[in-house]
Structure to design on (486 residues):
């Protein structure tokens, strides 16, 4: 085991420059080798206050710009950041663990989201209703909220950030972002690059630190008008309760346990590939990962065999090593949690067809690796069915028909994504209409589009990101009644 040089970072970026936080240093670990390589002091209440004040100072000028001009400034800044893709990609891999390929896809998508809202800046408008009464018309104005807090988890630090920052800034708000304590570095660098690219000081600020200290202080800060949160359901519920004081606006993108239904008339090869990619991508640590498969009995053996053999063939390795198809889990804690869920499930029943623990490769012994795992027909009340499983373990159940599959799919507290695989349009429509989730893919998987609203039902969240609809979560409307004439 080699020893790493530990680099120290400031932890804050506000007023257009670095700010050194006053809290205790938090370690940043390379998940592929299990070693700390950086330390970042956490933001104290005073640091959070300084970050929010920076955003509040920038708000009047930023919100007064023509919306087109805000879009142009953000567009220039995003294009500048894009020139540094080759620096952002390995940094993300190092702090998060994902493969270089996945990091490139993620950062490219994040910057693309910024550009998507730059384009939509031309579409931000209110409404006009003529003739409410004779000589009376109505105008609906749309106004930004003020300072927005963007709180983001560690699994997709840049895309989940830009989903919030892009509509918030274009709509005229200013932002204080808090990345997860274990993935602060790409966010800090991105803030620097956007500032170098021309984003005015204070418009986009970052304060790093723990959820309990920095996150709580941000949510409670009286000048924060809205909290845009992505993370786990229990933390989202806590934030919603805290935000009640001050009647703050909240959007919550929370946990998921996405069902996939494979009918007997489906393209089985395509469905099996999708199940494998959809579950093991990002080492299974995606809110929208396929987390439960329900397959029709007549084709179940073929599908189970196919998914299992794909899982066995996946090349597990460090994110920064060429050829790795699945990196490590993000932390020792995440791996412990997954191990516990797999063990508790197998103790209740089900058949393990592959995986079930860390790989035996001695080269991977120091990282937080876990082998791709498939469990067939575990009990429907086992952790694999009832909890969010945030790692590379896939349960597969045999079902009789579509009605049973939909019933099982909906027997979950979550309602984020879902998919159905069939060549029968009637079945596809039935599933799309009856599955309780914010997204249903028919014969495809897990790809979200900036053009379509995205957000969970039930315990998977509240409010939408993506699409023009996102603007409504970063603005207030005001109705103005104009009476003309005598
Ligand atoms: P988490 O809820 O523990 O943390 C998310 C963020 O919230 C982090 O920045 C954390 O520091 C902060 N935080 C924690 N406690 C806080 C508090 N009391 N006040 C304010 N901030 C606080 O989630 P995680 O484990 O980092 O991420 C994984 C979870 O995120 C999974 O449940 C996953 O499904 C979910 N997720 C959802 C989506 C979606 O779009 N629906 C996308 C990605 C991840």
């Amino acid at each position: 085991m080699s020893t790493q040089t530990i680099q120290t970072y400031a932890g804050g970026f506000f007023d257009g420059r670095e700010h050194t936080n006053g809290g205790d240093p938090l370690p940043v670990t390379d998940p592929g080798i299990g070693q700390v390589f950086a330390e970042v002091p956490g933001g104290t209440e005073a640091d959070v206050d300084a970050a929010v004040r920076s955003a509040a100072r920038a708000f009047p000028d930023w919100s007064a710009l023509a919306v087109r001009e805000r879009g142009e400034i953000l567009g220039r800044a995003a294009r500048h950041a894009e020139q540094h893709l080759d620096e952002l990609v390995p940094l993300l891999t190092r702090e998060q663990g994902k493969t270089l390929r996945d990091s490139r896809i993620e950062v490219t998508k994040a910057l693309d989201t910024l550009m998507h809202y730059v384009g939509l800046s031309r579409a931000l408008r209110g409404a006009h209703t003529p003739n409410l009464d004779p000589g009376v018309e109505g105008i609906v104005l749309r106004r930004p909220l003020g300072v927005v807090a963007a709180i983001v988890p560690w699994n997709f630090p840049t895309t989940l950030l830009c989903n919030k920052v892009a509509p918030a800034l274009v709509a005229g708000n200013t932002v204080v972002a808090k990345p997860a304590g274990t993935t602060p570095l790409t966010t800090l660098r991105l803030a620097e690059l956007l500032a170098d690219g021309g984003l005015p000081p204070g418009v986009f600020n970052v304060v790093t630190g723990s959820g309990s200290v920095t996150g709580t202080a941000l949510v409670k800060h009286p000048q924060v008008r809205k909290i845009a949160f992505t993370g786990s359901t229990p933390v989202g519920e806590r934030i919603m309760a805290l935000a009640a004081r001050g009647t703050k606006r909240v959007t919550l993108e929370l946990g998921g346990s996405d069902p996939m239904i494979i009918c007997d008339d489906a393209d089985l090869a395509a469905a099996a590939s999708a199940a494998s990619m959809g579950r093991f991508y990002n080492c299974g640590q995606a809110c929208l990962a396929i987390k439960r498969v329900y397959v029709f009995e007549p084709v179940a053996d073929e599908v189970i065999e196919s998914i299992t053999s794909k899982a066995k063939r996946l090349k597990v390795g460090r994110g920064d090593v060429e050829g790795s198809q699945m990196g490590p889990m993000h932390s020792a804690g995440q791996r412990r949690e997954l191990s516990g869920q797999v063990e508790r499930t197998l103790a209740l029943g089900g058949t393990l067809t592959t995986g079930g623990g860390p790989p035996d490769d001695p080269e991977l012994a120091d990282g937080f690796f876990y082998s791709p795992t498939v469990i067939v027909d575990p009990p429907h009340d086992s952790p694999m069915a009832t909890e969010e499983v945030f790692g590379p373990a896939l349960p597969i159940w045999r079902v009789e028909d579509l009605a049973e599959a939909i019933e099982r799919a909906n027997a979950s507290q979550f309602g984020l994504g879902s998919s159905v695989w069939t060549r029968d349009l009637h079945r596809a429509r039935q599933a799309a209409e009856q599955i309780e989730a914010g997204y249903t893919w028919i014969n495809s998987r897990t790809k979200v589009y900036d053009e379509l609203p995205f957000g969970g039902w039930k315990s998977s969240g509240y409010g939408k990101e993506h699409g023009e609809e996102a603007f409504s979560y970063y603005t207030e409307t005001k109705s103005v009644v104009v009476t003309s004439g005598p």
